[in-house]
Every structure is written in C-alpha cells, then in structure tokens.
Amino acid sequence: MDVKIEKQENNTVKLDITVDAETASQEYSKTCKKVSESVNIPGFRRGKAPRNVVEKHVGIGRIKREALNRMLPNIFANVINENKFNVASEPYVESFDYEVGKPANIIAKIELKPDVKLDKYKDISVDVEKYTTPDDAVEKELSNLAQRFVTTETVTDRNSTDKDIVVIDFDGTVDGEPIKGGSAKNYSLDLEHSNFIEGFAPQLVGHAAGEEFDINVTFPENYHDETLKGKPAVFKIKINEIKQKNVPEITDELAQKVGPFQTVEELKKDIESYLKRHEEMENKNRAQNKILETIIENAQVDIPDSMINREAKLLMEDIKNKVTANGTSWEQFLDLQGQENIWNNLRDEAQKRIKNSLVLEHISKVENIKLEDDAIEKKVSEMAKMYNTDEKTVYNQMSKNPQILQSLIQQLISQNIIDFLVENNKVNYVTK
Fold it and tell me: What local confidence, expressed as pLDDT, does residue 269 receive?
C-alpha cells in the first residue's frame, strides 16, 4: 500500500491511497462472501451462491463500497497515528477507482484541528471579584423554606394585593390582531413572583373577583419574538378568583418538617454550613472562570466554518430534542424564536466551545496532563452515591452508551487542566 499526503487549505489533508491489486482483490472476495451470507438469493443457501450470482443479485458497486468500508478504517488509523494528525472529523472518501484485479486508488480527505497560538498561560495574575455571603442570607433561606409550606385560601371580601395569587382569563392583541400564545383561561398568576412581561402583574392589583378590564403593556425590545419586539399590546382581563397565601412561621415544628432537625437553631446551623460551602465554591468557580477567560481570550485560533457549523448543528439537534420532549412543536418553536436568530446564536456558542476545547487540549499536550489510574473508578463511585445506586449499574449504563464514558473522561481531563492552571497562576480576590 502506498499513501501520498498533500496538505491543503483550511486545515485539510488530502490522501492519495493506492492498495496493491492482490490485497484489493482479496478484500473484494472476502466482502463478496460476507455479503452472500447476509442476503437471500433464490435457489441458494446463504453463503453458498457463486460469486457471479452474488454480484448480479446485489450489484458490484455495493460490494466495492463495502470492501472499501472494511479496508479504510485501518488505513486511516495508521496514517493518522504515523503522522500524528490531530483530526477534527472523520476522514471522508472523495473518489475511488476500484477494479478487481487492478490496484485500487482512493482519494480521501481529513480535516485537521487548527493550530493554537497561546500567550502566557502560567505565572499570570488575575483580579477576581470576591463573593461574600449576604448578611441576610440565612433569613432569606429560612423564608424560602417557609414558602414550600405555604397554603392558600380563596378570599371574597377584598380586592387583590401584590402578595396574592389571582386566577385569570386573559386575551392579548397587538394592533388589533391576536397574539399567538397570548391567551389563556383560569391561569394562576402569583403577583409577587410573576414572570410575565414588565407591567402586567402590577395592573392586576386592586381589582375584585369577577371584575373585567383591559391593561396596556409594551413588549421589551429584546423580546424573543421578532414580531412583538417593542410593540404595545392590550390584554383583556377577567379575574375569576383571588387566593391569599398563608406563610407559616419559622418554628421548631417547621424545622422538623424540613429535615432531620429538632429546632430552628439546628436548621440555621445547617443553612450556615451550606452557605459557607456555597461561598467557597462560588469563589473557586470565579477564579477558574477568570483564569480560563484570560488565557482563552489571548489565544489565537483560526477556526474553520466547517468545524463551527458541525458543532452548531449538534447544539441545534440538542435543542430540538429538548423542545419536542416537552411536547412543543419544533416548527412552532422556530417560528417564535426565528430560525436565523437561533442559528446565529448557536454558531457563536459553537465557536466559543471549540476555542475553549482547543486551548485546553493544547495545554494538556504541552504539559502532559493525563488522568490518574483510578480517576474513573473514583468518579463512578461518586456517581453511584449521587444516584443512590451501585457501581455495577453505572458501569452497565456506560457499556450501553459509550458516549457517557467518553464524556466522563473528557470532563475529568478538563478538570485536571483547570486545576493545573489554578495552581500555576495567581488569584487576587478583590472586594467591590
């Protein structure tokens, strides 16, 4: 076998592969035999039909393609390993000339990852805004816990307040035309924690059950639906019911409902411990992010569009799976969000991800950062405890879906690289 390598533009390598006639013929014969074992040919048992009959039944072209598919993976692997190519995607065949009894010629291409030009990535100093737990954090956590045990009761002797839940019918229009998805019946809206557009919830305060009225709002300029950005809208409202929220007091009895606590003081100590761990983790994350941001920002990488588009398509597919899993129509989602807008945002995200990955990969190679021998076992043990299962179950899931293991390895290596960068750079925590 002979392989001629030619470097081309856009980080692409062209392979001109010649397989000698004997090897090519042997592979063709083996493939022909293999194909005959997988198809039903009238008058013959599987695998027993003569070669000329098999060729006539399935076609010589199919046999040649399958023969190439059997030969090429090893050929590509050897070329990649011998030349230490850092491939960005699977090699692909551009053309081939394969006649039985003659040498086979294959023209293939491999896209390589772009080179990374790194500025200084060790012994740098970064300023990080220090996170400090707010003084009222414990009280807020207690309040949030109390919210979990809120009860409601319908009130009829007063108008709505900004602390109530109102059950409403609403119907929205813009320029006299109905808003897609802008109407509902018996919708429960918490006026204290509304996620509707600004100005909607406050206008529902001070009204009585059974009252009907109009409110006027304006969609924000950055609204996701292009047709509604900055547009004034009118909503017809009917208040069907007003519900008062009854928030329980923070007592020992409530603490016992929350968890394994006997008193409020025990609960507070647990919250304080959690907040301390959260503060430490937040500052650690801020330091990691700032160091990475500084290093990656100063790195120079010319990422080809082909890589960006591939990654963006994967991100798009991930969004599509999540949207459809929630029962939403993908076409409706595209109409609301704007397909071009989604694609442009995903390309930006894809470019950031690729650059991050390439920079971390470059550092790992230069510094020879690898996984410890027992890293996988330790992580599997953690995962088993997290999901309240045994390690064997975790390994079984990995064997069924190799992508899980691949993703896990990548996460562990990435964390090792990040830990290395934190250890070899200086962080100055500053208070603002």
Answer: 97
pTM over the 0.90 mark: no
The CATH H-level (homologous superfamily) assignment of domain 258-430 is Trigger factor, C-terminal domain (1.10.3120.10)
Q: Which tokens sit at 417?
A: 């690289």
d(CA 26, CA 78): 20
Name the residue type at position 102.
K
87-96 long-range CB contacts below 8 Å, 24 or more apart? 87/111, 87/112, 87/113, 88/11, 88/112, 88/113, 88/306, 88/307, 89/306, 89/307, 89/310, 91/15, 93/68, 96/64, 96/68
Q: In the prediction, which pLDDT does 44 show?
A: 85
The number of CA neighbours under 13 Å toward the Cβ of 73 is: 4
Q: Which residues of the chain fall below pLDDT 50?
A: none
Q: By the 8 A CB rule, do 108 and 6 touch?
A: no
- Residue 251: the pLDDT is 95
* Residue 371 one-letter amino acid: L
Longest dimension (CA), the chain: 96
Where do you find CATH 1.10.3120.10 in the chain? 258-430
pLDDT given at position 386: 87
Give, rounded to a whole angstrom, the gap between the first and last alpha carbons of the chain: 66
* C-beta separation of 112 from 5 below 8 A: no
Q: Which CATH superfamily is domain 2-112 in?
A: Trigger factor ribosome-binding domain (3.30.70.1050)
What local confidence, expressed as pLDDT, does residue 234 receive?
96
Contact 427, 128 (CB under 8 A): yes
CATH architecture, domain 151-246: Roll (3.10)
Ranges in the chain annotated CATH 3.30.70.1050? 2-112
